[in-house]
Structure formats: structure tokens, C-alpha cells
């Protein structure tokens, strides 16, 4: 769920270049012309600034791993280089350089995915070892890809065709292709997994229809119509954590929320004597005699709830989170604001704005200063233990590699990260949320 101006972007009016929510929607990261910032979004009234960094200017990719201290950064100054930091200790875990500009990075507890225009690199997040390179993937100039956040099924989704909306599903744990989903007639614009990794939502460049599929089978479950009058550019899709709702933002002033619920074949209760029930049956009967494109349009569900923003023509990032036990829609705008809306899970309709936060000018309070880097980090290895080196030392070593499972095609250079004397350990118990298996 990332929004960026691209590898050549100049940033918004406040110097904002990109924004992304973490995997459980408890944290927001923004990249700016002066570095990056991390915020906690677990409170409605207060936006807590977790961390500021000015070490890398012009950050156009910044991704945080859940609530841990691991953060991945890519800068416009070095768009082919990925830096992985432990921001609380002030150390760099590793860095990798690639043969072309990095377009997207995705994380879960098992894997780190780096997406280039025509290749994808799969790393083991425990030690950052390169496990697999997917070469000669269809041209993907905007870096469209998604990685399931569930710890037991690291499914990777990416475009299987550059001219139509095919989606390839790859098992990043077992390193094998699972299935191909013919999702849309037009090229893909956005894809995202549910928290359990059992559902995938997609939108095409037309932006009028959003579809939801089962994973790994690839069967179509739902079809939602975002609009009919105009094509739009979908900038983000996100399921709620309970997978009951799906939100979509675009370059228009409207954010749509769809409810994932099954309907009877008639679209309403068979025993209902209401006028709407009668009309629903009539539409269903009539659709059997209409062209397939028209009947499909009649059977598509509309938005359950909507939000009307005060700006248009901007790419916004949205997510559905439960904050203080109430469903909320969060929208991070490229203008440098975070909007918080209440969502009525029963009636839907127009969502109510309850808070607007500025993403610039937010500073840490004195009693919440960032912790000092530890001089002697723990020697014991934890679940996400990995290696580190001082962040001011650039990596210059490189080795030739063209192994199918661990390198690039023959003749390309694969850099080799350097190792420090002692490891950096992420504190699993305190930094990772509880792991729960969901069957949505």
C-alpha cells in the first residue's frame, strides 16, 4: 500500500514523496526530500512521531516490518540500492544494489521482495540471503506487486502480462509458481492480499471494476463496480484486518469501501415482499436476456460506504484499521495530511471525518525521545536476527552470479553485503504482534 511519485518525482508541497502503512495498519511511513518519518496510528486524537531520519534524502520507498525496528529505504540519489536499517539502534543491517531501479519493496516475517521493471528478487528476511530471482518478468514499469503478510503462506502476486490483467501467484516460501489468474482485460493497476493470504483483490488501469479472488485457487468471489462514467487511476487497495471490507482510493475525490458478503441469487431475500425485492428479481430475470457485458454490470455490487475528500487529482493511500475498538478508514494524502474517518459496519453510507493530522511539524515530546543506540547488542539470535554494519560505510564489493536460484542472468553483477563484527537482533516478543492464524 504505497503511494509514490516515481523514481523521478520531486515530492509534494511539503517535500513528501511517498507513504505506506505497515502490514497491520498500526504505523505510517512517509518518504520526503529530507529523509523519512515513522508514525504510530494507534490513536485517533494523537499522531505519535516514532522516528525521524535525515540520513537519506529524497526517499521514494520506505517500508516498515510490522511494529519491529526493521525498515527498508530506497533513495532517488541511489535508486538501484536498497538499505535495510534497525532504526532504534541506529545501525544499517545490510544493503543490496541491483541492475536497475527499484520500483517496490514488500515485507513479511519470512521474505523481503524487491521488484524491478523486469525482474523480482526474493530474500530470506532472517539473514537477507538472496533465495530466488524471477527473471524476464513481464514489463512492470510501476512496480505492481503484493506479498501476503500471513506467516504461513508467503504468496507473491505480480503481473503475468503487460497488455492484459493477468496475475501470477508465486509461493515465496517454497519458491514455485502456484497459479495464473485472468483478472482483467486491461493491464493491472493495483493488487493486495487479505491478512490471511486467502483472498486477493485487483483493479485494472480502467479503475471501474474491482475483483476479489480466492487464493491459491484463483476463483472469483466478488466483483465490485467503483464507477461507470470515467476511468480513474487506482492508487491503493486494502482489506480490513477481519477481511469483511475492502477500500479503494484513486486520483478522484472519492474513496470507496466495499462489503464482502454473499447475496442470494436474486440479490435479496426470497421471502421479502418489498418493492426493492421485487425489482431485484426483475433485474435478475432480465439479465438472462441481455448481452453478457450488460448483465455483468447489473450484477456487480456498488460501494457500501464512501468518503469525499477535499482534493482531487492526487494519489492517496488508504487502509481500514480498528482503532480504540472502532472501525476507521485512514487516508494519507500526498498533501501531507492523515485523515481519520469512522466507518459504520452496519449501515455504511457517507463516512464521518473525526480527525485530521498534519504529517509535517509533528515532533517527539521530550519524554519520548528515540532510544540511544546500544553499544553492546545482545549476542543471542532471535527469530529475525540478522547481520549489521555501520551505516556510513558504503558497500562496494560485488561478485559475478547467474545462478537460477540465487543470482541474475549471466553477465550481471550481484553485490555482496558486508558483515559487521556483531549481529543486530530484533526483539520478537516486544516488537512483533502476536501471530494468529485466520481462516478468512
UniProtKB/TrEMBL annotation:
It is found in: Preautophagosomal structure membrane. InterPro entries: PROPPIN (IPR048720), WD40/YVTN_repeat-like_dom_sf (IPR015943), WD40_repeat_dom_sf (IPR036322), WD40_rpt (IPR001680). GO terms for molecular function: phosphatidylinositol-3-phosphate binding. One of its GO terms (cellular component) is phagophore assembly site membrane. It comes from the Eukaryota. The keyword Lipid biosynthesis does not apply. One of its GO terms (biological process) is protein localization to phagophore assembly site. Keywords: Autophagy, Lipid-binding, Membrane, Repeat, WD repeat. Its main location: membrane. Residues 420-440 are annotated as: Disordered. It is a peripheral membrane protein. SUPFAM superfamilies: WD40 repeat-like. Belongs to the WD repeat PROPPIN family. PANTHER family: WD-REPEAT PROTEIN INTERACTING WITH PHOSPHOINOSIDES WIPI -RELATED. This is WIPI1 protein. It comes from Polypterus senegalus (Senegal bichir).
